[in-house]
Structure formats: C-alpha cells, structure tokens
Amino acid sequence: MKDATRAVTAGRNPGAHSGAVNPPVYHCSTILFPTFDALKASRQITSGDGVTYGVHGTPGTYACEEAIRALEGGFRTRLCNSGLQAVTMPLLACLSAGDHLLMVDTAYGPTRTFCDGMLRRLGVETTYYDPLVGGGIRELIRPNTRVVFLESPGSWTFEVQDVPAIAEEAHKAGAIVMMDNTWASPLYFKPFEHGVDVSIQAITKYIGGHSDLVMGAVTSNETVYPKVRQGWQELGLCGSPDDVFLAMRGLRSLHVRMPRHWEAGLKVGHWLMERPEIAEVMHPAMEHDPGHALWKRDFLGAASLFAFTLHEEFSTEAHLAALLDNLEHFGMGFSWGGYESLLIPIYPSRLRTATPWPKQGRPKGQSLRIHIGLEDTGDLIDDLAAGLDRMRRV
Fold first, then answer.
1. Are 148 and 90 in contact (CB under 8 A)?
2. Contact at 8 Å (CB) between 331 and 344?
3. pLDDT digits (tens, 9 = 90+) for 24-78
4. pTM of the entire predicted model
5. Which residues carry this modification: N6-(pyridoxal phosphate)lysine (predicted)?
6. How far apart are alpha carbons 213 and 201 in whole angstroms?
7. Cα(393)–Cα(209) distance, rounded to whole angstroms?
8. What CATH number is given for 254-392 in this structure?
C-alpha cells in the first residue's frame, strides 16, 4: 500500500461507527462497564489499549494513532497535547537521575529549555553536539548515555544529520535514538528505516495543516514502546477529542498538500537566490546546500520551511521593519506547516553552544525563517519582491 492510500484509509473503520467515514468525536471521561468481570478485565489492560477511561483514549484517539503509526512505520503511536509534550514525555520516560543525554545543537528552542531546566533539576546531564558529527558521535557517548536525540533538518539553520550513522553508534552503546521528525512529516522521512527508536511529530504543523490545533505524537518501535507507554500514562497525556478530529482531517489531505509545499518552497528558494539582497538560502533540497547529498539519500521529499540570510548592509532593524511590516501575503508568527505563508527574523546564535553560529565562511547578516503556504507562488514572490525593494530604500 502506498502512502497516499495509507493517509486516506488508515485508522478508518466505518463498520464500527454506523457506516460513518470519519470516527465520531467522543466527549467522555467515564466509561461504564456492564458487569463486574468487565470492570476487572479493564484493570488488567497494560498496553494502553481499550476504552477504559477518557484520558487513556477513545475510539477516535486510537483511530488517529493508528493512522499516524501506519505512515511513520513504527510499532505504536501515542498522542500528546502539544508537540513539546511529544518531545518531553519520551525523554522523561527513558531518562533517570545520573543519566546522560546527547542533544543535537540545532534542537527546537523549548527542547533546549527543557533540557537545561527540568532535566538538569532531575539530575540528567545534557551535552549538545554538532549536528554534522555523523559517526563521530561515538566520541561523545559515555557509559551512562541513555538517549541520543536528533532533529533533522534543524528548524532554524536546516543542517541535515546522518541519521543512520548516528543511530548505529548509539545502538552499539545501548542508547535509545529519538528524533524530531516534524519538518519532513511522516511522508518524507521514514525514521524507523534509518535506525530511529522513537519518532516525534508536532501534529500542530504539517499533519494538522490548518493552523487550528495544537497536538503532538510519539511513535515508538516495539522495544522502546513499553517505556513510552508507561511515561505517557503516568503523565496523564492525551489528545482532546476535538483536536483528534482535526488531526485526522488534516492527515487525510497530507499527501496532497506536501507536494505543493515542496514545489512552492523550492520555487521561492531559487528566486531568492537570484536577489542581490540575499547572501545565503538554507534549504537542504536545493543543490547548493551542504546537506543536499544526505537529504537526497535519506528523504523522500521536502517541506516548505527554510531560511535565508541578508547581506550585512540590510541587517538593521529598520531594514527588517521595511521588509516585514507591509507584506500582504506573509504573516509574522512562530508556527509553520499551515496553509498560510509566514516570515520571521530568527537569531540562531542565541541557541547554539556546541557549534557557534554563524559558522566560519557563512555570512554574518540577519537570518529569516520562511514558510511557504498554499497561496499562488507568483503572488508570494511579488510580495517578497516589493518587501525587498522597500528594504533597499532604507
């Protein structure tokens, strides 16, 4: 079965819902049991399956989890109330006081905050590593390293990691490999085929696709799933019934939207490369990008989130205001993956410790992160052209 078919059919069971194509929204906390034996049986459930209590899942929850699992390729998926919860829950489930965590230096900002805050207070030490370390990660692994965490590409500077090489070394040392796979979505990177044990999705982004829900998903292989399931249950995480419905709605059209995002992102990226104000475009699916070879080897497609850097003479706040304040089709917002286009300034140097930014040989101008939505690409380019022209007049 191809992914397009999985995206449409996985998790559907009309026969269980009076023929309804979509699973109904179940608003429930209490589940009633018809007999004492049925009540006793519910207490024996240890896998997280079965409709026993609202926080443990409803038929809608399980349908959404199965649909995402079918695309990711893992053993089991569990839903969380945000993408950040999907990051923090498996870390808490798999780490204890005295353990060591290797975290990629390009990690999502709140992921770093969690490592430097709560994990540190709980006695877990975090070492940030160069995203381009590849098999050299072996030199950083300690006897107490329990988790190696990846995010490829990084959502600010877009370095592509050699996932199989890192996973191989981590597994030799008995460490669990976790990866934030939100950029590529379950369509364009298959984490479990490359050695990942736990794959994390911010459903808020491309799976949701409509900028109207906040949710996360954690998909595990069979070996690590018991730890993840226990952590998920003990923290009381779940997706709300209405958000589950929205996630399923978005998932059904993911295979249609993602090629459009891919194509439009490349078109705008190549156009930006030709503008004299632009010093660098950081997009792994473009041939000039340092991570292009790894992207071409491991990925099945590309997202429309990337970054670009302005030449130094255009990096003042006055220049940025001239570019951003009067854009017609680009909003300024901190999410991405929806149908609308976004553009914000970013400051990678504030979130890098293992590998200073900008790296040697890269321009030192202001960076901006751009998400290309589903608008007409020509209209988006015209909007950017007008903004860059305003910027030049400052």
1. no
2. no
3. 888 988 888 899 998 888 876 655 567 888 788 888 999 999 999 999 999 999 9
4. 0.94
5. 205
6. 13
7. 36
8. 3.90.1150.10
